[in-house]
Design a protein that fits this description.
Helix 13 packs across helix 14. The chain contains 18 helices and 11 strands. The radius of gyration is 25 Å and the shape is globular. The longest helix has 32 residues.
Length: 414
């Protein structure tokens, strides 16, 4: 037997081995990317919350379901040297233990713990009074409460906890957080993915299942707090309204027109939009109207906090190259990312858009200290007018102007 007798067999073996190596390498790349999101990822609120601990105030963390509140708190818990107690209000026994308790009962519940986390606190009746008793009487105990629905939690907190709380909102993963954790190249690589599928942690770490995850999320889970309200008896209207809002991203909305579209009255539309905003699904921008006679005085636009949720509502996941709504997606992405950035940086400003009866328009305006910062969002600036209206520039005190494109958006967001 000659050596050449082995060549065909060895060639087959080498090909099979080579294919296996390629598969392993691809899996390793995917695993590395997932680990960046799941393990190495550090949210901007992490250090903010840690810095505010043991200042004699409760810390309230609000945000939509699945944005990563529980994951963040578990990371913070792991860093604590003090004894920790984690109370999950999805458990009926925990809700009962926290409802309408006196100080002595709460002292027994807290025990020796110095760091208390109450997850999904909106499920506890009169939770504000419970937290007030702990803050006022257990000075060496740090308490953190989370909630997925601001309209319930804030109503139960604001009066009892006046002057006794730090309150923060958590969003889907931000451009700044990706940039800090994995660098410029990863941010650029993920841009088109985030424009279509959004930035929820579970979605970014499971891109292969992004559509099914988003459809499941948007089907009912995000709106669970709204759908459990006794006064909400028209879930079909809610779904139709969300679809109408998704198609009108970046455009001025009329409650009367929306009501006609979904088959209800304008008061119901306004109520549902208010609830959706308080559950962190959408947010409103009002039109700026002060100096010019032809400015639209009651104009408003509605955006989604996450592009993926917007696209899931209309079940549209076509890639960037095949879409005819890239202007809308880019505008929604940029403005929602700017809101994340401002919130985490503690930059407070009034936010508007601007439009006149003659259809002159500016996408996004920030006002602080009496000055305006003016921004236009252009996915493809070569195909659109990038000149800002002279009437606006002459009427207001302008601090800065900028056209936000895929080439320079990182300077604006990260």
């Amino acid at each position: 037997m000659y050596f050449s007798d082995y060549i065909p067999k060895n060639r087959i073996n080498f090909r099979i081995i080579s294919q296996k190596i390629c598969r392993i390498q691809k899996k390793a790349v995917l695993l590395r990317r997932n680990l960046i999101i799941i393990v190495m990822f550090k949210r901007d609120l992490h250090h903010i919350i840690v810095d505010q601990c043991y200042q004699g105030k409760a810390i309230i963390l609000l945000g939509a379901r699945q944005v990563g509140k529980t994951t963040l708190l578990k990371q913070i818990i792991q860093e604590q040297s003090a004894e920790v107690q984690y109370l999950n209000c999805d458990e009926p026994q925990v809700v009962e233990a926290l409802t309408n308790r006196n100080l002595r009962e709460l002292q027994l519940l807290v025990g020796n713990a110095k760091f208390i986390v109450i997850d999904e606190a909106q499920k506890v009746n009169n939770i504000g009074l419970t937290l007030k008793l702990i803050v006022d009487n257990l000075a060496d105990v740090q308490i953190i409460a989370t909630g997925s629905s601001a309209f319930e939690l804030r109503n139960r907190l604001n009066e009892p906890l006046t002057g006794r709380k730090f309150e923060y909102q958590m969003f889907p993963i931000s451009t700044s957080e990706i940039h800090k954790s994995s660098g410029y190249i990863e941010v650029k690589r993920l841009l088109e993915t985030r424009l279509i599928y959004g930035s929820y942690p579970d979605v970014l770490s499971n891109i292969g299942n992004a559509q099914s995850l988003l459809l499941s999320l948007s089907d009912s889970y995000l709106y669970k707090d709204i759908l459990t309200m006794d006064s909400l008896r028209k879930p079909v209207v809610l779904n139709k309204l969300l679809q109408a809002l998704a198609f009108q991203v970046g455009s001025e909305v009329s409650y009367n027109e929306l009501a006609q579209t979904v088959g209800t009255d304008s008061k119901t539309v306004e109520k549902y939009i208010d609830l959706l905003e308080k559950c962190f699904i959408i947010f409103r921008l009002n039109g700026l109207s002060r100096n010019l006679r032809n400015e639209l005085k009651k104009a408003k636009k509605i955006y989604f906090y996450d592009n993926g949720v917007r696209n899931a509502v209309i079940q549209q996941f076509a890639p960037v190259t095949l879409r005819n709504d890239m202007g809308q997606l880019w505008e929604n992405f940029c403005i929602s990312e700017r809101i994340k950035r401002n919130h985490y940086m503690g930059h407070r400003c009034n936010m508007y858009f601007w439009r006149t009866t003659s259809q002159q328009e500016i996408d996004y305006i920030e006002e602080s200290d009496g000055q305006m910062s003016v921004f236009e969002m252009k996915w493809n600036p070569k195909k659109s007018n990038t000149k800002l209206p002279e009437s606006f520039l002459n009427a207001y005190d302008i601090r800065e102007t900028s056209i936000i494109t895929p080439d320079n958006y990182l300077d604006w967001l990260a």
